[in-house]
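User: Show me sequence and structure for the first protein, then do the same for the second.

Assistant: Starting with the first protein.
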Amino acid sequence: MSKQRFVWKAVDENGIIQHGVWVGKELSEVQTRLRNEGYFPVGIRTSWDWQSVAFQARAKMQWSHFARRLATLLEAGIPLLQALEMMTFHEEKLTLQLEQWKSVKERVEAGSDLSEALSLLHPSPNSFVLSIIKAGEYTGTLGKVLSEVADELDLEHVYQKKIKAALAYPMLLFFAVVVVLYVLSVWVLPMYEKLFRSMGADLPFLTRVIFACGRKIPVVLWSGMGLITSGLLVLRLTKPNLWKMRLERSLGRLPLLGKVYRLRDLVQFSRILERLLSAGIPLLEALRLTAGTLRSPEMLELTNQLVLSVRQGKRMAPLLRASRVFPKEGAEMIAVAEEAGQLDRMLHFVTQMFRRELEDQLDRLMRMIEPALILVLAGLIGLVASGVMLPIFDLSSHLE
């Protein structure tokens, strides 16, 4: 059962009414927790609002901020429990984010590890973050690995912003095309069609096609926007992770964007695997954890094959060489690293190579899409203008 947000009001041991917001799976869980902490529940209700949706939407940035603050305190020599207390005690307004951090502190205070406490949150960090934190707990370098986790999450956020920026201008031009079509079909084309019919003009084939399409465009646009919006809202509210994966897979099938998404998955694969190996996690377990963070079905299938190969005592290089999604140069670099026993160090250079290629592809994408969409928009307006002007030229020749 998914967790919900409960707003509660209760009386403490001194008879003072207290208010709060807790996250739990069901009402009885919140009631039991209140009684265990010495409160007498007065009222409890579920609260679904956009704050919880917004918190899930920016969860990665929240984990990055949390990890960096906690890493700074731990590296300054402050014990973990005291550091968690310092991160939460000074806040006056109880928000969903603060409630999450307080629940982490309570679980750690009860004897849980930090990784275990974080895994019980909703939404919880991904398997990569939890595994790195667990490795830091075992090796006694929690502050250092938390700082590395924050760096990695910030870097991933930067690349996601670059991809979104590359899509922003094409989407703006696409929106402009839709607006132009709507304006032409609702106001411009009906006016000319009415004018030509009143004059009894014999309309050319192109003009008749444009007028016929103009009458259907508003219905198509509104129905299409309604279906897409309702479908995305349903997926967003019922399956918040599935809709993103489906949208990215659809975008990944496009000719220009496909390579960008493949390179992004290659960067994520090599980067996460390198971090996990550097943290002391065995290769087989690192591959399993890496598979849990991938979105591309091709990369996921390749990683699962690598897991089976490594479990049988084989090396990764032969599978990577035979793969269609993994570049040959990267496969050869990993083959050399396996021979030398320096796989984590070589994966760092492989990641840098993939990152440079991703940045080049993003720049190339911007240079190609922008003029193409401008030409499409200009061609569309020119086609409509030609269809409208043809009867005018025909009428002017008859008047002469």
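Switching to the second protein now.
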Amino acid sequence: MNAPNRFDALPHFATAMKAIESLKPTEPLYLVQPDKFAGAAKQFLDGFPGDVLYAVKANPHPIAITNLWNAGIRHFDTASLGEIEAVKSLFPGAICHFMAPVRLPGQAKAAFEKHGVTDFVVDSAAELDKLLSETGKPAKLRVFVRLVAQLGGALLEMSSKYGCRPEEAAKLLKRVRVAGAAPCLTFHVGSQCLSPFSYAQAIEIAQRTIALSGVEIAALDIGGGFPAAYSGQEPPPYHWYFDMIKEALNTLGPAKLNIMCEPGRALCAPGISLVTQVVMRRGDRLYMNDGIYGSFDEQRFISFDEDYPPTGITLDTRGKAKLLSGEKLPFRAYGPTCDSADVLPRPVLLPDSIANGDYVLFGAMGAYTVSSRSPFNGYYPDSWAVIG
């Protein structure tokens, strides 16, 4: 059964063009597409051989969480007490998993006692000791030891900060078992992973760790990293990932093993688009109403697309939205703040007819946009509409 719709007050439109025609937005506008949230969730719920956890950090906004809940997601990868409380305030029946290897003092205790969280991650003996001390009931816990998985294939690696090698992980698994908790393993192959084979390699590392420890694990969380399809960058289809994972799991261990994954970007990126407006054009420069301190923070990472091919839109004399025409040229896009660093790191390709007041539509903007925006200089994008 779907959750009550908390966003009935948001304006609804058939298309992005209709939204622009009607609202003529002068502030950045997030366009929510529930059907794309539903489609992304269905691919994982139907294809992945285990529990699907939404990585809340990718987009913790109630709109994203609610759309994914309505699409059937019931498990959530939460990395802080704040994320747990955000999910539970919306859906008390949600199953939260505290998957951060290092937690602030007292957060494990609060998560366990107030919110019934029983899954936790560690990558050190010190954090394991703290977890056991704060919760006090190891028999109720599943403790996931995080492995290093620096394998390449991902645009953003996720193993330089957290994780341990198989030898150290094997020792931690033994300690978890002796303490009376259920020993488990996890890893993260990196964000926007374009190589399905990386998951098979990481599962092989998990297999080696299990052999070193002599411990039968209760669950394996293969982490996130599943890619979103961005303009100019088409990842392999998800079924390639799922098939590779299933094949690798056949060599791992008992059939009863609980398998989990933590997609974030893959679940929320397709479901939100962004409408920005050109405040001023100066030659090949566009001064826009959103930038690095708003929805484009992640674009600082130079490993993403070589260019951004968004859609240029204008309003004609009758106020009707239409696509801009003309040869596409590279423009430098600056955000609205007074900081000279507020510029997208690579050019955007737009028709040479673009002018003051025109709009630029960016697709697949649901991940690491809303979650990383800031109110720097008094700008904070937070206007919403629903399309579809």
